[in-house]
Amino acid sequence: MKGKFSILSLAIALSVAACNNTESNKNQAADPHADHDHSSQAEASTSHAQTPPPAQPEEQDPTASIPEFKFYKVKSGFGYEKKDIPSGKNTVFILFDPSCGHCQQETQALAKNYDKIKDINILYISMNDPGLMVNFLPSFGKELDGKPNVEVLYDRNQEFIRKFHIPSMFPANYVYGADGSLKNHWVGEKGIDEILTAFVQ
């Protein structure tokens, strides 16, 4: 039960933190402690500057091959599993948040370059409420919406962060080859030319 709670907490934290939006970065740069109450630390220590920051866990590598999973198609509610991925081509998992500005920008750029990614499986995954996800492609990637190689999938049971990877920010991209092996991955922003190269190589 403890493990389930921590994964649920992580899922909520990821959905709240969404992506590294410029505005939040500006606020953080101005005062990274503005949202925190350090009164207890002030009592325990005469100088806040002498208190070392807590150690950050190292980001683990993503799984080296596509694991078994079950997500759900946002439009139909039908299950989507590893066996449903069309074979013989690269498969890209994009973990996203519908409200994330960088996720929206990446999707807009991909949509404008659909001809270059039409032979790649593109799977958009989110733990958000499907009601928030259903309009994501119509709003930010019209050229991707309804295409046979593009799916928007609801991760109802937080399987992605349990089986694939826990990213530090959105969007998080994972490129697997036709053999199911991880070829490339990154989190956050990346130029569209780099993205397209990574998707098709």
Automatic annotation (TrEMBL):
<protein>
    <recommendedName>
        <fullName>Thioredoxin domain-containing protein</fullName>
    </recommendedName>
</protein>
<dbReference type="GO" id="GO:0016491">
    <property type="term" value="F:oxidoreductase activity"/>
</dbReference>
<feature type="domain" description="Thioredoxin">
    <location>
        <begin position="60"/>
        <end position="201"/>
    </location>
</feature>
<dbReference type="InterPro" id="IPR036249">
    <property type="entry name" value="Thioredoxin-like_sf"/>
</dbReference>
<dbReference type="Pfam" id="PF00578">
    <property type="entry name" value="AhpC-TSA"/>
</dbReference>
<feature type="region of interest" description="Disordered">
    <location>
        <begin position="24"/>
        <end position="66"/>
    </location>
</feature>
<dbReference type="InterPro" id="IPR000866">
    <property type="entry name" value="AhpC/TSA"/>
</dbReference>
<dbReference type="InterPro" id="IPR013766">
    <property type="entry name" value="Thioredoxin_domain"/>
</dbReference>
<dbReference type="GO" id="GO:0016209">
    <property type="term" value="F:antioxidant activity"/>
</dbReference>
